[in-house]
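S.,

As promised, the fe (ii) ion run. Input:
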Amino acid sequence: MSTDAIVLLKEDHKQIRRLFTEFTNAGENATATKGRLVDKMIELLTVHTYIENECMYPEVRKLLPDIEDDVLESYEEHHVADVLCAELAMMKPEDERFDAKTTVLIENVTHHMEEEESEWFPKVRAGLGRKQLQEIGARMIEMRKQAPRRPSQPSALKKAVDAILS
Ligand SMILES: [Fe+2]
Ligand SMILES: [Fe+2]
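Predicted complex:
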């Protein structure tokens, strides 16, 4: 299996998109199914955000200072998704705003993943060597093992607090 950082992140995106499509196609009354799908979305997004925020973004920012602005925009986009995930994690699928909030999460994250895949990843691949991308990927695989899976876990909360205070 490849440890190329971009390949790994794209694989995550694919899984996340699959859940988004399932949610969108679930139908008006599929409350239990939607609750389960959102639970899974929150888990995948919490892990994915953790490895990007704690590894991919800081590494790329250090190695390719020219694309720092893209990294800063990504932190902000992740922050918006974090807030929505944290709110959804406290809601029940029967709540009036559950579907609407999930739709906004899907729209935001879809936009962000498209931007990463069509603009940011190509810049990163052009700027970094294959070996560097494999090393970053190998570190992300390690980090994934300790990554928070729920927004309420301390390592996820710390990230949210840092985003507000720093
Ligand atoms: Fe991202
Ligand atoms: Fe991503």
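The CA atoms of residues 26 and 33 lie 7 Å apart. Residues 5-165 form one domain.

- D.
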